[in-house]
Amino acid sequence: MEKTVQEFLNILGLTEDEVKIYLALNQSGPATILELSRRTGINRTKIYRTIEVMQQKGLAEEIIDEHKKYIKAIEADNLELLIKEEESKAKYLREIYPSVSNLLITHRSASQPGTKVLFYRGKEGVRQQVWNTLRTKGELLGYSYRPLSELIGKYYEEWYEEWMKRDLRMRDIYSDSYLKGKRVVKQKIDSLDFKSKNIISRYVPSKILSITHQMDIYNEVVSIYHWYEGEVFGVEIYNEKVASFQKQLFEIVWRMAK
Q1: Helix and strand tally (H, E) in the chain?
Q2: Which of 6, 113, 162, 170 has its CA 20 to 30 A from that of 48?
Q3: pTM to 2 decimals?
């Protein structure tokens, strides 16, 4: 039980010393600095500094009683205020992330001009690749290997909601491997199930083109994801000529698809 509480407080942003002090106060009630030092094993100088920070965070408060100063932990119910603050921070970070990401990429591109190849490994890496497609200007062209939710789960729904909110456009080609995966994975959102101006899909049989990995082509980027029998990795190639060539090939296949 105590381990669960410690993990919760750590995730909430408390340091190891703050957790020790908070739990000591919560268990034994208000205490002086000296008493806290004895209970936690933290020296008094450090206790003073940590308490100041905890007061700023709203985790502890002072009580003056008969010329003695005691430290008291906030009630457990008040932790919900901290949770709401973290939620607000997360919402703000999510809202400004696209702008910050674009600025960082612009700065990096200015200092590192030319071709770039970025390698990603594991599901977290692929999630980042998928989210990067939200930088699309104009139209994204893609080949669907299997339902993406098979790899990144409900994160696909978050990406889709953001894609629609930004009113971005995509043309997508899928083959028999996608249909096979669709029968196994019940994806809540699937572009094949409805007609949308944002995502238009066409089918090409495997005898014409066997799609063995996921590929997105947007701006000057060719983004490839591959997952098979536990092996998950991705590559982003930033090169205008490579992207242009892949866009031409896509148009040829698009005319053959239905």
Answers
A1: 10, 9
A2: 6
A3: 0.56
